[in-house]
Amino acid sequence: MSAVIRKIVTVVEETQMEMGRQVSPPTRRAAAIAVIENPFAGKYVEDLSPLIAIGEELGELLSKRAVAALGIEGAKAQSYGKAAAVGENGELEHAAAILHPKMGAPVRKVLGKGAALIPSSKKRSGPGTTLDIPLGHKDAAFVRSHFDGMEVQINDAPRANEIMVAVAVTDSGRPLPRVGGLTVAEVKGEDGLR
Fold it and tell me: What sections of the chain are H helices per DSSP?
């Protein structure tokens, strides 16, 4: 089963100034969001494998779009995250089926690596909901400068029988980070932690 996509929205955020200080180079993050039909809306289904396959399909599509929006090669992306919101006739397990079993592999392939877990969030909500996409360094979870999030919203999604699915990537960490921890230069990227 392929995703039945109603719309795709891509958002790029670039921070050039923070607290009156120039951010150089600017920090940039992009999210690609798909609004899809939920094939299991309104009913309990034991076998969610069609949604798992849709997650794999969307992982590739959305990560390619987010990277393209930043205008960088996938390997230059520094952090990533994913999120989903199911409409009122769906259940959280529908979002989990899309986000977890198979979405990560194609995202990592587009980005050339990804030793760390991909942070994720899921919720049930209606049109205009805010989707908070957690972000973390793609190869080392202990890089505090990349603990972040991106907020996105589509005014008419998700409808009751839809799922809004997002992948976000960045080309840097937060603007002006200064809370210590492992630096990007120190990343080994072998265990997903350091």
Answer: 49-70, 92-99, 104-111
